[in-house]
Design goal:
With 255 residues, the chain is an alpha/beta fold. The chain has a single domain, classed as Vaccinia Virus protein VP39 (Rossmann fold). 36% of the residues lie in helices and 28% in strands. The chain has nine helices and twelve strands. A seven-stranded mixed beta sheet has the order 4-3-2-5-6-12-11, with helices on both faces. A three-stranded mixed beta sheet has the order 1-10-9, covered by helices on one side. The longest helix is centred in the first third of the chain and has 17 residues. The relative contact order is 0.18. Bound molecules: S-adenosylmethionine.
Length: 255
């Protein structure tokens, strides 16, 4: 029987599918995450003048970013609403990095909305990758990031590209299926065909306006294409995304 999860059920959805998600990431990797988004996010962080010392990884999932950022940073908080995802993130980090790096990461089982940072303006970098669609209210999201991020701190956030969310993928490209200007939701079946998760669609101006209202400057908009070095089994799927946008990454700075 198929189940429909919504934004109030995110915790139970990820608790239920945490190990499917981990397996998918660990086997061939996921095209959008591992071969389109993450390489561009790391390139962006490497372009910063200096490595961020304190990092918050909102919705850390399997802990991929927390693990990799622990090398260059002094402190990383890996936060996730799902206790199962936190368990997986902790194990992934422990098994793949040495003790000194592992000690820099603390794991927080909490929604971002109810998370208490060690102090106000604590983090130099806040990451919220593939997360913008998990917030029903962008004002709440940006307002909360504003509280936890240092002056001039950076926020890197991403989501499926808005053009993709308002259209259906067809052989010859995208076909718009709903009004771009009408905000709403989309059904994501990326982890399980029977359990869909209802996530939020945002237009570019929705994001820009709320970010600006909360004191953020957009520094960079990145629309990455798949990297060339991808496993053979993903090459066919990747072809389409050399021509059509898949992911939107935004770097913002708190004024
Ligand atoms: C699509 S995954 C993204 C994982 C990771 N950021 C990445 O890019 O690989 C979404 C993750 O966010 C978590 N999540 C969803 N809503 C959340 C919220 N409000 N607060 C904290 N974590 C949340 C989910 O449990 C899940 O692990």
């Amino acid at each position: 029987m198929s189940n429909r999860f919504n934004l109030f059920d995110t915790e139970s959805f990820y608790d239920k599918h945490a190990s499917d998600y981990e397996k998918k990431r660990a086997s061939k990797g996921m095209l959008f995450n591992d071969y389109i988004e993450a390489p561009a996010v790391f390139e962006e962080i490497r372009s910063f003048k200096r490595a961020p010392r304190k990092v918050l990884d909102i919705g850390c999932g399997v802990g991929y970013y927390s693990r990799n950022l622990s090398y260059a940073s002094d402190e990383v908080v890996a936060l996730d609403i799902s206790s199962k995802m936190i368990e997986i993130a902790r194990k992934n980090c422990k098994d793949n990095i040495d003790d000194a790096q592992f000690k820099k990461i603390s794991f927080a089982h909490s929604s971002f909305e109810s998370y208490h940072a060690p102090s106000e303006k604590y983090f130099e970098l806040v990451l919220a990758t593939f997360m913008l669609s998990y917030f029903d209210n962008l004002d709440v999201f940006f307002g909360k990031v504003k509280n936890v991020i240092a002056d001039n701190g950076k926020l890197i956030t991403s989501m499926l590209h808005p053009f993709r969310l308002f259209s259906t993928k067809e052989e010859d490209g995208y076909r718009m299926h709903s009004s771009y200007f009408k905000s709403g939701y989309y059904e994501s079946d990326f982890l399980n065909k029977d359990d869909t998760l209802r996530l939020k669609k945002w237009t570019l101006s929705d994001i820009a306006n709320v970010a600006s209202k909360n004191g953020f400057l957009i520094e960079n908009l990145i629309e990455p294409q798949p990297i060339l070095d991808i496993p053979d089994m993903l090459k066919e799927e990747a072809k389409f995304y050399y021509n059509y946008p898949s992911v939107l990454i935004i770097t913002l700075r708190r004024k």
